[in-house]
Write a structure and sequence with these properties.
Shape: elongated
Radius of gyration: 19 Å
Strand content: 25-35%
Helix content: 10-25%
Structural class: mainly beta
Number of helices: 1
Number of strands: 4
Oligomer: single chain
Distance between the termini: 24 Å
Length: about 60
């Protein structure tokens, strides 16, 4: 049975996990306030980025050789 790898992703260093921000423009429309939703360009609005695969000596240390 496969297990979930909790270390497969890490929190985005650019947005610290707060991937989407909503900015109030200060203007009003007929429906209410005008807001703009902005996503983090580094993670694309997910808040996490994939970890780099282990290579070289680090990979050997991880498997216990």
């Amino acid at each position: 049975m496969t297990e979930h790898d909790p270390f497969a992703h890490r929190v985005c260093p650019h947005c610290d996990g707060f991937a989407t921000a909503v900015v109030d423009c200060g203007a009003r429309s007929k429906d209410g306030r005008v807001v703009i939703s902005i996503d983090c360009p580094a993670c694309g609005g997910w808040g996490v980025i994939p970890r780099k695969p282990y290579t070289g000596a680090t990979a050997l240390a991880r498997v216990g050789r």
